[in-house]
C-alpha cells in the first residue's frame, strides 16, 4: 500500500531541532498514517492488547483443565478445536472400563493424550504396548460419549488421565 | 548523544531524497575535540541519503562550514567506504534518537 504523506519531504535526522511548524507537519504525517489503518478485523486499537488479555488468552490455550477449553487452533474443516482432561480414575483389572466424556455437541475427536501413574511414581503413556508381554499392554478407545481403557493384566494400582481434543457440532 | 562538531554520523535513510542543509541557531551545545561549548554563530547540518547494494542509509554531519558542495564531496567519499552489512545493521537499529558516529571527520577538522 503506497502512502501519500501530507509532508513526504520532511528533512530530519537525530538531534535536529524541529520548528513548531515542522512538528505540526510531523503530527499531520502520523495522523495520516493512523487514518490509513482504521480499526477492522485485522487492525486493533491502541492499548487494545493488554497484558491481562494476553495472559488470559495464553492461559486458555496452554492450560489443561477438566473443563472444556478452546485450544485456539482449528481443524481442517475450520472448526475450533477444544480440549478437556478426563480424570479416569483407577485403571481396570484385566478388563475394560469406560468413563463418560460429558462433552455436549461433540463433533469429531481428533486426538488424545493419555497416561497413567502408579503411587510409586512409575508412569507410562496410554495406549501402551509391551513387546515382551502382550498382556501388559493397555488399549485406549473412544465411543461417541465415553473413553474406554482395556488392560490385559491388573492395572488397578494405576490412575489414568485422558486429554481429548475434539471439535463440536455447534 | 551530543552534537560532535564535524564528526560524520550514519543513520537510516531519511525521508528526503536529496542533499539537505539545515541551519542550527546559536547557543546550541556541541562538543569539539572532547570539549563542550555553545555555538556563537550559525551551525549547519548536512544530510544525504546513499545506497549500498539494496540498503539505503543516511550520512549527516554538523559543522560551521558553509561550503555546501565541499561538505557533500566529503560525505560522498565516506559513503563509498560503508559496507552493506553495516548499513543493514544501522537500518535495523536506528530510532529517532539512535544513530552512530563514524570515525570520520570533515577534512581539516580531525
Task: Detail the topology: elements first, then pairings.
The complex is a heterodimer of chains A (170) and B (110).
Chain A: H1 20-36, H2 51-62, E1 69-74, E2 80-90, E3 96-100, E4 106-117, E5 123-125, E6 138-142, E7 146-151, E8 159-168
Antiparallel strand pairs in A: 1-2, 2-8, 3-7, 4-5, 4-8, 6-7
Chain B: E1 7-12, E2 19-24, E3 29-32, E4 35-38, E5 43-52, E6 55-63, H1 68-79, H2 84-93, E7 100-105
Antiparallel strand pairs in B: 1-6, 1-7, 2-5, 3-4, 5-6
Overall description:
The complex is a heterodimer of chains A (170) and B (110). Chain A has 170 residues and is an alpha+beta fold. Chain A is 17% helix and 34% strand. Chain A is built from two helices and eight strands, in the order ααββββββββ. Chain A has helices at 20-36, 51-62, and strands at 69-74, 80-90, 96-100, 106-117, 123-125, 138-142, 146-151, 159-168. In chain A, β6 and β7 (146-151) form a beta hairpin. The mean pLDDT of chain A is 88. With 110 residues, chain B is α+β, with helices and mostly antiparallel strands. Chain B is 20% helix and 41% strand. Chain B is built from two helices and seven strands, in the order ββββββααβ. In chain B, the strands form two sheets. Chain B has a five-stranded antiparallel sheet with strand order 2-5-6-1-7. Chain B has a two-stranded antiparallel ribbon with strand order 3-4. In chain B, β5 and β6 (55-63) form a beta hairpin. The two termini of chain B are 19 Å apart.
Notable traits:
heterodimer; A: 170 residues; alpha+beta; five-stranded antiparallel β-sheet; three-stranded antiparallel β-sheet; 2 helices; 8 strands; 17% helix; B: 110 residues; globular
Give a summary of the structure in a few sentences:
The complex is a heterodimer of chains A (170) and B (110). In chain A, 17% of the residues lie in helices and 34% in strands.
Amino acid at each position: 500500500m503506497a502512502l501519500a504523506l501530507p509532508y513526504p519531504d520532511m528533512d530530519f535526522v537525530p538531534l535536529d531541532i524541529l520548528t513548531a511548524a515542522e512538528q505540526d507537519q510531523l503530527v499531520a504525517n502520523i495522523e495520516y498514517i493512523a487514518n490509513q489503518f482504521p480499526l477492522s478485523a485485522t487492525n486493533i486499537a491502541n492499548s487494545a492488547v493488554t497484558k491481562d488479555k494476553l495472559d488470559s488468552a495464553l492461559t486458555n490455550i496452554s492450560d489443561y483443565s477438566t473443563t472444556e477449553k478452546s485450544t485456539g487452533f482449528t481443524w481442517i474443516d475450520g472448526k475450533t478445536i477444544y480440549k478437556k482432561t478426563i480424570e479416569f480414575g483407577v485403571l481396570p483389572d484385566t478388563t475394560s472400563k469406560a468413563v463418560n466424556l460429558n462433552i455436549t455437541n461433540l463433533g469429531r475427536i481428533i486426538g488424545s493424550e493419555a497416561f497413567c501413574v502408579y503411587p510409586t511414581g512409575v508412569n507410562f503413556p496410554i495406549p501402551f504396548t509391551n513387546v515382551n508381554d502382550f498382556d501388559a499392554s493397555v488399549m485406549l478407545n473412544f465411543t461417541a460419549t465415553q473413553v474406554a481403557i482395556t488392560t490385559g493384566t491388573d492395572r488397578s494400582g494405576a490412575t489414568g488421565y485422558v486429554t481429548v481434543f475434539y471439535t463440536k457440532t455447534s | 548523544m551530543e552534537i560532535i562538531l564535524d564528526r560524520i554520523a550514519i543513520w537510516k535513510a531519511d525521508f528526503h531524497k536529496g542533499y539537505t542543509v539545515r541551519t542550527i541557531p546559536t547557543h546550541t551545545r556541541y562538543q569539539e575535540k572532547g570539549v563542550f561549548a555553545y555555538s556563537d554563530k550559525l551551525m549547519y547540518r548536512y544530510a544525504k541519503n546513499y545506497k549500498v547494494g539494496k540498503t539505503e542509509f543516511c550520512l549527516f554531519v554538523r559543522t560551521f562550514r558553509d561550503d555546501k558542495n565541499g561538505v557533500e564531496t566529503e560525505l560522498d567519499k565516506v559513503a563509498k567506504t560503508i559496507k552493506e552489512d553495516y548499513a543493514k545493521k544501522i537500518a535495523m537499529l536506528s530510532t529517532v534518537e539512535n544513530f552512530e558516529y563514524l570515525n570520520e571527520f570533515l577534512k581539516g577538522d580531525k
